[in-house]
Amino acid sequence: MQLQKINTGVIQCKKCPELISYCENVAKNKVKRHQTETYWGKPVPGFGDPKAKLLIIGLAPAAHGANRTGRMFTGDSSGDWLFKALHQTGFANQPTSNSLNDGLQLNNCFVTSTIHCAPPQNKPTNQQISNCTHHLLQYLHFFNKHKVVITLGGISFKNYCRSFELKKLAFGHHKIYALQNGKTLISSYHPSKYNTQTRRLLWKDWLKVFESAALLIL
Q1: How far is 68 from 104, CA to CA, in rounded Å?
Q2: Which of 10, 16, 22, 209 has an alpha carbon 20 to 30 Å from 117's alpha carbon atom?
């Protein structure tokens, strides 16, 4: 399956009507700081290099981040951390990501998520995760020559492990697992405001995840 076809399938997906309705309502009832903008307001596809050897799996689009801009991790504080780290480790041509037309390009890296619709309070249900897992599997099949997967947060890690019956792996920050299929899985804390502002996740520890990935795909 072609990457564009996978992306189109994500955008057109209607498996979770409650999430579609939520994304549309957020796009209609904008927060004050984005009143003049036109929101994306629908499922957000993956983004990056179609020849990527590094895959990054986040949790979900932010209501006023990717649900607004239409691109993964674009327009919110988590994206600020992600793309700055990718730039410093050679995976991105610039350290910022603000809009679809900001010139950002990823090198050898592709970013997707566990679910592709913004969930209320950033808390998807188990059923919503299950409904969206087939999109993740399609991306992983397309990038069958990838070498490294980074999962951001416990939910993404557990869903990835569940999808491939990896039963004995424990979540933690910068834990590196060599898998039997020749791939490497790296688990990481999510760069959410809660984790960064409480200093549960420090910049130096965050950057090490991407430095490890860069070495592993050589």
Answers
A1: 17
A2: 209
Distance separating alpha carbons of residues 116 and 94, to the nearest angstrom: 24
Q: Which residue has the tokens 């990717």?
A: 66
Rounded Cα gap, residues 33 and 25, in angstroms: 16
- Assigned CATH for 3-216: 3.40.470.10
Coil, helix or strand for 48? strand
pLDDT tens sequence across 39-95: 999 999 999 999 999 999 999 999 999 999 999 999 999 999 999 999 999 999 999
Q: Give the dihedral sign, CA 100/130/126/189.
A: negative
Residue 51 identity: K
Q: What are the boundaries of each domain within the chain?
A: 3-216
Q: What is the pLDDT of residue 218?
A: 86
Query: Do the bridges between strand 47-48 and strand 109-113 make them parallel or antiparallel, or are there none, so unpaired?
Result: antiparallel
Torsion-angle region of 134 (φ positive above 0: left; ψ -120 to 50: alpha; else: beta)? alpha
Distance from C-alpha of 158 to C-alpha of 23, rounded to nearest angstrom = 25
Torsion 180-183-186-191 (CA) sign: negative
- Strand 175-178 with 184-188, pairing: antiparallel
Model pLDDT, residue 139: 98
In the beta sheet, which residues pair with residue 186?
Answer: 150, 176
CB 100 within 8 A of CB 71: yes
